[in-house]
Amino acid sequence: MVLVDTDVMIDLLRQYSPAVSWLASLREEEIFLPGLVAMELVQGCRNQQEQDRLLSTLDQFQLIWPSALMCDEALTLFARFHLSHGLGILDALIGQTAVALGLPLHTFNIRHYAMIPHIQLLQPYKRI
What we know:
Layout: E1 2-4, H1 6-13, H2 17-25, E2 31-34, H3 35-43, H4 48-58, E3 62-64, H5 68-85, H6 89-101, E4 105-106, H7 110-113, E5 121-122
């Protein structure tokens, strides 16, 4: 199981060569997206055509939504690190989802998540 953050998905959607090669290398691994990542991607759409194309592409990924317990734990993290480290609401929820599932989060936004205890962060490919 591979859990992917928004920045990696953007690279994939833009057909960034290292990202596409990385995805192809996963072969039969299941790719999971936090549902909040899908929502961030939809938020970035500029028109209906772009949004329709995105939603069609997202169909190939399994969405994972945080449970009520994950949300409670994310709130604790958010309250603890928002002021001191600038932890964002969505990053708290996405990060806590990764921690609760025991999965590394594939991301280049290390700074967004580094303060979250027990989180595993992986940069999945080299950015040129």
